Amino acid sequence: MEVIRVVTLTEHSPVPHPDVYGFLRLTRTTRGRRLALSAVLDDYCRTHELRLAALFVEHAPDDFYSPAFVGLLDTLTLADAYGVVIPSLAHLGPKRTATDRARIVLGVGARLMQVRLGAANLHSGSTAVSTTHRASALIVPRLLRARRERPVS
């Protein structure tokens, strides 16, 4: 006798959104800017059916392993961690720091999603969030490749 298992459609049952964690580097900023950037991350997550589970805010300008970044890395080891969402790559730090931190985030198996690109990286006419998301997925590996090719001083 064959057993048939009935599965309800996802439209009729709660389906959890993947958990992502926001990261903001705000060394000198106002409360208004922090709230605006938080809203940008939240809107991005809602648009892409992600759940912004927590937001890590870094205030230390020159601390590579700041409490916020270490907390983010600890959180990424959780089984339900999907990735990290940032407004722009600059929120991971200055260029070299951002590249090294991106490598670490990607190295733990997390996805790194960049909400918006710098002016030099935007394709003409690409203003849609989904276009930005796809383009940013290509930029981080390119940055990492460039960093590896540079001679270590």
Overall average pLDDT: 75
Query: Oligomerization state of this entry?
Result: single chain
**Poorly predicted segments:** 7-11, 118-153
The end-to-end distance, rounded to whole angstroms, is 70 Å
Q: Which radius of gyration do the C-alpha atoms yield? A: 18 Å
Main features:
153 residues, alpha/beta, 4-stranded parallel sheet, 4 helices, globular
Question: What would your notes on this structure say?
Answer:
- The protein has 153 residues and is α/β, with parallel strands linked by helices.
- Helix content is 40%, strand content 16%.
- The protein is built from four helices and four strands; from the N terminus they run βαβαβαβα.
- Strands 2-1-3-4 form a four-stranded parallel β-sheet, sandwiched between helices.
- α3 packs across α4 (129-149).
- The longest helix has 21 residues, at 129-149.
- The chain is globular and about 35 Å long.
- The protein starts with 18 loop residues before the first strand and ends with a helix.
Topology:
Layout: E1 19-25, H1 31-47, E2 51-58, H2 67-76, E3 81-86, H3 95-107, E4 111-114, H4 129-149
Parallel strand pairs: 1-2, 1-3, 3-4
